[in-house]
Amino acid sequence: MIDDRFELVNRLGSGGMGMVWRAHDLALHRDVALKEVRPPDPALSENDPESARLLRERVLREARALARLDHPGVVTVHHIVDGGDGTYPWIVMELVPGASLAERLAEGTLSPVEAAELGRGCCPRCGPPMPPESCTATSSPPMCCCGPTGARCSPTSASRRSASPPV
């Protein structure tokens, strides 16, 4: 249980900056994606407290900037669970059904039309202007979700795993 509100259901994937979980929001009765932010070096807080503090500040700044976005190509950030100094935040996001672009590419080559459609969905920088602080994340294949309503870029760097059930 996270923040007395989010019940972890199953792990969706992991990447260089943490793990992403399917969680159930007990207050709103809906499933969400919940990113557990973890630095690449688990001992970062102990070995380099200043770097850990800067990482935490950067994650919070980026999550707040992304939460202000309203763009069809970007996954919505709903909430931040912040335990305060010395902790890493959890980022509560919209749960997008479908596979990642990396999973789709593993199935075979995209047609030019499919590649263009997915690219438009995963490249929000090509659309309406976005605040500069929100343009720090990359749009790598594991971070793009290919759902029934098109591609969406996840504002996290933790990818989904193909072994995960469809969401």
Automatic annotation (TrEMBL):
Listed GO MF terms = kinase activity
Binding positions for ATP per the UniProt entry: 35
**PROSITE patterns on file:** PROTEIN_KINASE_ATP, PROTEIN_KINASE_DOM
Q: Does the keyword Kinase apply?
A: yes
Q: Give a yes or no for keyword Nucleotide-binding in this entry.
A: yes
Keywords assigned: ATP-binding, Kinase, Nucleotide-binding, Serine/threonine-protein kinase, Transferase
Give EC number(s), comma-separated. Answer: 2.7.11.1
The Protein kinase domain sits at 6-167
Q: Which PANTHER family match?
A: MITOGEN-ACTIVATED PROTEIN KINASE KINASE KINASE 20-RELATED (PTHR43289), SERINE_THREONINE-PROTEIN KINASE NEKL-3 (PTHR43289:SF6)
Q: What is this protein called?
A: non-specific serine/threonine protein kinase
